[in-house]
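Q: Fold this one first, please.
A: Sequence and structure below.
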Amino acid sequence: MSRTEQPGSFELAQTTGGHACRGALTFATAPQALKQTAGLFKDGGTALCFDLAGVERADSAGMALLIEWLRLAQEADIRLRYAHPPEHLQAMARVSGLAECLSPDPITD
């Protein structure tokens, strides 16, 4: 965690391949993360990638956020991809029956 990043915070950074998510995806950060990312689904693009490697913590609200991003992408006709989901997110998705949400390309059309 960087010195400027607060514990339990969420940060989004643009990268060459998309957007890197860092920090926590939790009840405390999900509303901020949704607000911070909402414009990405309205900019007219056709593809979007969230790199989840930097997600240190997540709870059910974080999983709900990932599902909401899928919904927003589908509504905007954007191909959404989640890259490098950490094991703790993959485990939560498996237990919840949502493992398909974290597949490399959950939306194919």
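Q: Good. Now the second chain.
A: Here it is, same layout.
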Amino acid sequence: MPATARNVVPDQEDILLAKEASRLLAKLRDGDEPVELEMRRNGDSLSLKLPAPVVRVLLDALVGLSDGKPVTVVSQDTVLGTVQAAKFLGMSRTHLTKLIDSGEIKHHMVGSHRKMMFTDLIEYKTNDDEYRLRKAAEADKIAEELGLM
């Protein structure tokens, strides 16, 4: 895994702690002001300010962990290979390669290996999700017009 990615797979204790932390942090989610946190571990304590966008990212991560899901935080400038990219997009490497070859997903070559910027994968995923939602809405409309709903 690249040095710009951190993966957390929660155990039962992590899940319980994440549930409580997400419940409390959700109260501070809204707003653009920094959030001040007091933290303690083994007698050491510190106070820090987190920017509002970081609070929202932290809350998203805690919600995922509280559901028992692994969470990965990835820097926007991370470069992924085809195996990592396919896993992120939830598709086979073969299908990803077809999308790359057709130009639907941007990539660059490093030797003989296809590499993708994480931001390009996010862009593809966002566009694909929007396309699927539009098509589902169109199908619902047709079904309604035909009296199937």
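Q: Anything worth noting on the second one?
A: The chain is about 50% helix and 20% strand.
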